[in-house]
Amino acid sequence: QVQLVESGGGLVQAGDSLRLSCAASGRTLSNYPVAWFRQAPGKEREFVVYITKSRDSTYYADSVRGRFTISRDNAKNTVYLQMNSLNPEDTAVYYCAATLNTYYTSNWYDYHYRGQGTQVTVSS
Questions:
Q1: pLDDT tens track for 86-115
Q2: Of 18, 21, 50, 80, which residue is the least packed, with the fewest Cβ within 10 Å?
């Protein structure tokens, strides 16, 4: 089992930056591909970004490409999401998730381990 805990959310203004962290315990997170998802009020959960175990590939949703950057620090058993140029449409609860699958997937239900989420609110 892998336990995931997100942190770093908060209330910021449009144009600001935030860095989210996803800390793992129980297993070595570097053994799993990891993704971030988000869910805005009244909307379905959506894929944000994915990173492979080896960090050699990343996949971004069009809505965040160029503004968000995913990275992983295997020594700290943590994955990060650097979010720049935030806008009100980025307001959501952000979740990290790890999968046992070795192929890229943007489907929430393909992820076996999921965190509880951290709230990001961007004011205009």
A1: 999 999 999 999 999 989 999 999 999 999
A2: 21
